[in-house]
Write the structure tokens for this entry.
Amino acid sequence: MLPLAQWLLRGQGQALAFVIICFSAGCIFWPINILAVAGLALLTLRLGATKSATIGLLALIPASTIGYQLGSAFMPVLLGLSTLLVSETLRASRSWALSLLALTISALIASSVMLLLFEAVLLEQVAFMQNILQQLQAPMGNGNPTGNAALMTLLTDSLNSRFMAGIWGSMVSMMCFFGIVLSRSWQAKLFNPGGFQREFHELRLGKIDTLLYTLTSLGFLTIDTSMMTWAWICMFPLLISGLAFCHWFGMQKKLKQHWYVIFYLLLILNDFLRLILVLIALLDVSINFRARLNKQNTFEK
């Protein structure tokens, strides 16, 4: 996809067309939004938020119009504004830790906006999800609750407008992050080969950041089970920090590519593995695994 990145940087006309098309298509097929984020973030990383904001705002007009017809006009706006904020933070600070903080704040704001301004849309989605869960629960019968049945019951009890607002915020967080990662990798390949790998491998959250994410997540969980999606938004940076360590460890051990494929498949399918990555990030704050393992490797040599 490197030729695409080169093409985007050749002029604002093609960059605007690309972002418009991807944001508009993203209203129908959401994963395409990642390409829209990547295009807008690449412009921000190279030109700054002032110049890229014009392209971003112009692109959001037709995308929001299409989204309005489909009942999701808010998504391009929330995603575009979050992209500008996070990518400009990364450009100015060159710190993934600060960028993840900006990402978390923007995702929580997106959830709050959804809850305050689009509650009617959220309630429609809640009714739709409740209908699906009821259909899934029916075959389970009325016997002793299994793990899946207990999970279904928990979701049914938690499902309300706050829960759905957190889901939208989580989607903004994840699509924005993966789009900016893609744009940063493009930028590194074009102007600083190997730079993205080094900075991502070095990603490690500070003690204050980790404490903030942990306390905020626990705070949301104590309010109500419907706020678990908001808690996930706050745990997402911890997950990414744990993921960065695993990539660094894999490079140290010179793991083959197929191990990464297996790892990501398990990560998608297994909730427990995601919790392990969060735990790794929490421990890394005090233990600093990289420094210890580097010292151990030096001693062994």
Notes: The first helix runs from residue 2 to 8. The chain has a mean pLDDT of 87. The radius of gyration is 21 Å. DSSP finds 15 helices and no strands in the chain.
